[in-house]
Amino acid sequence: MKKITLALCAALASASASADTILGFDATAGAWKPSYTGAVGVDSYNVDEFSLAEDNATFLQVALEHPIPVIPNILLAHSKIETSGMAMLSEDVTFADETFTVGSDVTSDINLTHTDATLYYEILDNWVNLDLGLTARQYSGELTVAAETLSENIELSGVLPMVYGVARFDLPFTGWSIIAQGNGTSYKGDSHTDLTAKVRWDFVPAIDFAIEAGYRVMSLDVQELDAFQSDLEIKGPYIGLNLHL
């Protein structure tokens, strides 16, 4: 009976290890509380004047990994980023094709929601983990500015190719990890970066269930992506939950 039990345990352990080797699944969901600085529009209007609300943004990312060397792994991510504010203009300001005159009370709604599709390779996979790849970021956002008798809506729907990288350092026997993750691109004077630094604690090791907290900084300096013109920095702390199978 003891031999049968030992054999069964060994078989289960082998099957578990084999499943993890064949296919890996990693998912993170959380909330980000960003603040906004910089400028938008043709006249580079300072967004501080709008007193934009620091509402929570939500994000979700899911990665699927496999052991085939030549085929990249895939990561899908989605961030919903929306805010609004109000200002009285101290000068004439042009947004896209419309000019809002001095003294106007204007409201603004900024939507920077985007979805990422990333193909990447695991370069290192031990207590030091390194992934490198390429991301296609699809924006489905807009900037809306409205006054009493005038409004302008500027869509942000272009696709940006970006370099992707993540480095994770596991602190042995602690359940803690330090992680740096980022995307970036630059072309003809336009640039876009999205960087995150975080710590993760695997508090349910049996199923690799972890909590993580960190700081995310996103900059969007674009003049040619649709009609949306901006030099924005969005940054703030976030917290999330992670599951690895």
Shape: elongated
In the CATH scheme, the class would be Mainly Beta
Distance between the termini: 31 Å
- Secondary-structure-based class equals mainly beta
> DSSP strand (E) fraction?
over 45%
Q: So how many helices?
A: 1
How many extended strands?
A: 18
Protein name: TIGR04219 family outer membrane beta-barrel protein
Keywords: Signal
Organism: Microbulbifer agarilyticus
Describe what this molecule looks like in 3D:
The chain has 245 residues and is mainly β. It has a single domain (2-244), classed as Porin (Beta Barrel). The chain contains 1 helix and 18 strands. The strands form 3 sheets. The protein has a 10-stranded antiparallel beta barrel. β7 (93-95) and β8 (98-100) form a beta hairpin. It comes from Microbulbifer agarilyticus. Keywords: Signal. InterPro entries: OMP_w_GlyGly. Residues 1-19 form the signal peptide.
Features of the shown structure:
mainly beta; four-stranded antiparallel beta sheet; 18 strands
Summarize this entry quickly.
This protein is mainly beta and 245 residues long. 9% of the residues lie in helices and 65% in strands. It has one domain (2-244): Porin, CATH 2.40.160.
